[in-house]
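Entry:
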Amino acid sequence: MEKYRQASKLLAPLLTKSSVGLKTLAFGGKGPGPNPAVYAMVCQTLEHKKLIDTVLAKVNKQHGSSNVLSSIKDVATQYILLFELLLGPEQKIKGGGGVKRAIVKYENDFRIALAEEIKQNPIAEHVPTGHWPSYVRINTLLATCTAAHASAIERYSADHVSLHPVVDNLLVLHPESAKTLHDWDVIKSGAGVIQDLSSCLTAVALGGGNGGRWWDRKLAKKAGALPTFLDACAAPGNKTSHLAAIVNGGSNKVNVMGLDRDSKRVKILAKRTELLAPGGQVTPAHRDFLKTEPGDDEFKTLKGILLDPSCSGSGIVSQPDRMGNDDDESEDAR
């Protein structure tokens, strides 16, 4: 039950403080952060919180109770264990004890309520994440598409791996792969980045893919003015490093700046880009984009601004991984 205890501890502040972001809570401190399995569990619990609330309300109504799980004093633990039982990879609670017994007592009712809700409202947000593919962006600053693709096939088999037909250097993996992605050496080294599809689109739209660019690096170089690209709210840095991979192509000739006005998030940005874009591919800066001066010398060669704050996914119900995506934060600093 230790994994559940850790997950509940991480989840608890997110249930009461809307201004706190999961990424900052998990990795903003001095330590290495939570176990990847714990972090993933909290991401997915948050993602399905609305569904869990609905199912719990149905069962409460059935039994004429305000909360059939009132014996579990920690609300975060209720959410974690309900997710594990109903929507987790194995759909069962491991271990034992009174907390487990309090939930299993109503297991049949919970499962019936879940099935009814999905049948009545068959929308994407109600579908367990296990039914959605996983996406891994190949970080071409550290690896080639060929090598990473081959590694994925070796690890997961050719039937479970494909390259996205539109977004360059993006692996599409079978849903089962999500269980072991964090243990893959490609992810650990930064050569691959777990990043949902929608999160990849902004950098591609700005910098252009392998199919062509709207800006010409060669002409800019001849003119003696290498272009600068700016990520206006960059932390924690997945999109920033993606932009650097597109515009640099490993040559480290284009300046990519990443701004964030929150000091804690800038530290996360620096740490993340040090792994994903080493050697000065990205310049992190603790600055408020809204207070920058367009006339400053450092922006004379500015070619494009990437602006994708967390609210950009609002209203999109078919984003199964949005809550767990590294670039998704519900903080005022964004």
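Confidence is low (pLDDT under 50) at residues 311-334.
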